[in-house]
Specification:
Order of helices and strands: EEHHEEEEHHHEHEEHHEEHEHEHEHHH
CATH topology of the largest domain: Rossmann fold
Number of strands: 14
Shape: globular
Number of helices: 14
Strand content: 15-25%
Structural class: alpha/beta
Oligomer: single chain
CATH architecture of the largest domain: 3-Layer(aba) Sandwich
Strand order of the largest sheet: 3-4-5-6-7-8
Number of domains: 2
Distance between the termini: 43 Å
Largest sheet: 6 strands, mixed
């Protein structure tokens, strides 16, 4: 049929004909990034109308002023002198206290937390007038460790106009994008992905970060290994990418992972991919129950089997990716964020931003 392309099956012979993938965009999708993923996902991407109206302004890379409320996004590093304000609202997207003692995390990342996020956690978990937590589990954790300020759950909001329409047909491109905090979570998948590459000649694997556990993939012609990049560079690359299956393993366990947000769901949706996540990751489990993600329970062998199942039968992954794309574009997460920030600027209790 005109407009279709032949694809190879597992053995490399001509297989079924499928609709072509959407073309790669001629320019990156969505807005440019700021200096911090936390600042962008919880304020920057959604709050441009508020900045244009003068309701909110950035005074440092991770600090804003909303009315007479100083807004601290994870930490206030880079703020030399706070502007006059009456209240402090603190947004936090990780369980920093748990992370400091979580030996499932690399030492270098725990040191990074101690240096950057811990001083703000220690101060503002007890002294902020309002706390915004990235997940319900993190809100519960903050209450358990003594936070007494009102807590609003504020999920991340990726820009809808950055999200690529999912493709159709076979799964051919698998991506693993993990920062330093996930290095041990992803390490067991290096050998598993190498094994899959040896048995699926049309498979390509893209890995960003993930550390030494990816050594089995080094030098492989169909494995694209890239170091972890600063946020603006990573976002510029992500919003021009397209792949089929995004992996979110939490194989190291540990208390830090228990409060993870759903940011990876939107991240992989930007590339048009279905998410295959670790069972027990609450946002991923919720997306799976709604038909918008897939999940794996178990270790590297279970992950190998789940990825191979998607290669053999792409229909569940394609359906999940399409459902996620439709949901996230209609979800109005950015509008809910704007309602929260406008209420804070007006000095009124913010609405709950979780859908």
């Amino acid at each position: 049929m005109e407009g279709e392309t032949a694809v190879a099956d597992r053995s490399g012979s001509a297989g079924a004909r499928v609709a072509p993938r959407p073309p790669m965009p001629s320019a990156p999708r969505g807005p440019r990034a700021g200096a911090s993923p936390t600042a962008d996902l919880y304020l920057g991407f959604s709050a441009e109308p508020l900045r244009a109206d003068g309701v909110l302004r950035m005074v440092a890379p991770t600090v804003a002023l909303a009315g007479d409320t100083l807004v601290i996004l994870r930490h206030a590093r880079g703020l030399r002198r706070p502007p006059p304000h009456r209240r402090v609202a603190w947004l936090i997207d990780d369980d920093v206290a748990a992370g400091l003692g979580d030996r499932a995390l690399p030492w270098a990342y725990r040191a990074h937390l101690a240096r950057t996020a811990w001083p703000a956690w220690r101060r503002w978990s007890r002294r902020a007038d309002l706390i915004l937590a990235a997940s319900p589990a993190l809100a519960d954790r903050l209450r358990a460790v003594g936070a007494t300020a009102p807590i609003t759950v504020l999920p991340p909001a990726w820009p809808a106009d950055a999200m690529a329409r999912p493709g159709t047909g076979p799964i051919r491109r698998v991506a693993l994008s993990m920062g330093l905090s996930h290095a041990r979570d992803a390490a067991p998948l290096g050998a598993a992905l190498a094994d899959l590459l040896s048995r699926w000649p049309d498979l390509r694997v893209e890995v960003t970060g993930a550390g030494s556990g990816m050594a089995p993939l080094r030098g492989h012609a169909r494995a694209d290994l890239r170091p972890e990049a600063p946020w603006p560079a990573y976002w510029d690359r992500l919003r021009g990418r397209s792949y089929d299956l995004g992996l979110v393993p939490h194989l190291a366990g540990g208390p830090f992972n228990a409060s993870r947000s759903g940011a990876k769901l939107g991240e992989h949706a930007v590339a048009g991919a279905a998410v295959l996540g670790q069972a027990g990751w609450a946002p991923g489990d919720a997306a799976r129950r709604a038909g918008r993600a897939l999940s794996v329970e178990g270790g590297a062998e279970a992950w190998t089997a789940a990825i191979e199942a998607a290669l053999q039968d792409p229909a569940p992954a394609r359906a999940a990716a399409e459902a996620a794309w439709t949901h996230l574009r209609a979800d109005a997460a950015g509008e809910r964020q704007r309602a929260v920030w406008r209420a804070i600027a007006e000095g009124t209790p913010p609405p709950e931003a979780a859908p």
